[in-house]
Amino acid sequence: MKDILFSSWGDRIVDNRGKDSGNHEGTDYVALPEYFNKDQKIKAMMGWNGFVIRSEEVDIIDLCRAYLTAVLDYSKDCGKCNYCKTGFEEMLEVIQDISNGEATEEDMEFLTSATEAVVDSSKCSIGRIGPLPFLQALKYFADDFARAGRGERAVTKGTYRSKLTAPCMDACPIHLDIPRYIELIKDAKFADSLNVIRERLPLPGLLGRACFRPCESQCRRANLDEPIAIKSLKRFVADKELTDEKQPVFSLNPSPKTGKVAVVGAGPAGITCAFHLALRGHKVTVYEKQAKPGGMAGFGIPDYRVPRRILEGEIKHVTDLGVNILYNQTVGRDVSISQLEDEFDAVFVSIGAQQSAKMGIEGEDMGYEGFIPGLAYLSEINVGRDPSADGKNVVVIGGGNVAIDCVRSACRIDERDVHLVYRRTRKEMPADDVEIHDAEEEGVNFHFLTAPVRILAENGKVVGVECIRMELDVPDDSNRPRPIPVEGSEFIFNCDIVIPAIGQRVDLSLLEGADGINTSKWQTIAVDEFTKQSSRQKIFCAGDCETGPDALVTACAGGRRAAHSIDRLINQLPLEYDENYYFKKLIDTIQILDPNEKIHKVESKPRINPTVLSPDIRKKSFDEVEQGLNDKEAVMEAERCLKCYQVVTIAV
To answer: What is the pTM of this model?
Structure first.
């Protein structure tokens, strides 16, 4: 990037002041987009890693004022460090004196000493990191501050936008205020912590057990020792409410105009959308083709990971708000999308990817006894039926979470001989690493760099699967090494059960007869990425039928986003992108987490993980494997959180 006048980003100084534009030194340490949105150019930025100035129109003093004002505003709710709040207020008072041309030399010295004192005394990142770019500005633009303080130059006002985030918050698809709910656990305010989570997410018990934890992979604490057990802490406060036999109290905030909304699918996306619409006073009817709610989370996740009572209990909280769920109602058969569109003010489609993908090998379409697609296998397991009662030797094909759920479930039925076949190595497996580890402990036999070729059968029953060895080549479109067959390496697995679990796809037959709804080449419903509105004004979509098979938390985030858009549609407000959207794009570009950052002045403490049932015990039943944290453990784990809030301010 060469279109800059000055940059201190990442403590790397690039100073092009006074240079001809053709001789500007560039920097590859930050990729600052030219535009914030289509109408606003980014002239400068100040944040956790320094500051960047692009335009001579930007006044460094006013930029610092805007940035420190935002830092102060975001720190007011904390109250943990008195000097932090007082320090920012005093800094801003001096900056105002500088802007008025009334600052003394002592004021200038005070600015530096006060800023350094806040950095040294603060207990969280707002105070420890927030003032650092201001210190850089004082150092490298000392003459500007001095001249303005003496009244020798005017301070030019600018237009600014500011955002509070944290690495974990940014990584979370639904953007939970993770530092805040962990801080409340630290203070033993467990109910308040759960309320913070429920501001966005109505399924904390489900996600506290089955989330893939993108927040933990972006936890700044990992630069010191181990990431915070964020998922386990979410589960803890949800379980605490249950053990204390408390019922949640939700604050309704009805919109000026309310309406009727149909939701298709009672999975995580649909339930989240219904929850937020109900809070805004809308009348919501959910159409669910199964006899019970939960969607893929209900029939696709075994009880040893998420007990059914947890999911159904959280969905009951949503129906208690007035949401009506109609079971055994298949949209496209019992009622059409067009009928819903005529009857309701808006329709939200949130069907899951409930069909198993084809492997494209010989024998998979022959209807052999013992050949059971992964989703069908789990669905039977979750209603208490053994779908392979006559089989003892099981081969599961795939490397994702569905494949792992299948092998772990198979292990729990009559101590079967269970094998998992995957065409790449363990490193490339998309399944959760914890789930893979648990499957290994439970005795699953893993066969990597192995792919199926054909299903073998006798008298209509599976007797084996022919496989071939693979080797890894250059990366493919998924950015993983492409597996290629090793010629002449075929061999046979003798087995009587084959369970393919290589992926899922969406059944869009419910759209038949509804013209004008655009779909993608991946056979998903095409929607605006932010508003979730389809090509038909009243129809919205999120979850797997928008994204393809994806994480539970991503589906929940889409449901919340769609609810916001539907509320605006009913209230005849434009479905515009807001600042949150544009800031997300900006932060994704400049990156909030530095994996090489050294964490100083913090004592290393081991992560507290919940206890789990031993492999010998758990593989004999579907009892929940992970036992959860107790009060003391939860507070101790919460105390490890560095509260990594960060502020970014841009001049536009």
So the answer is: 0.95
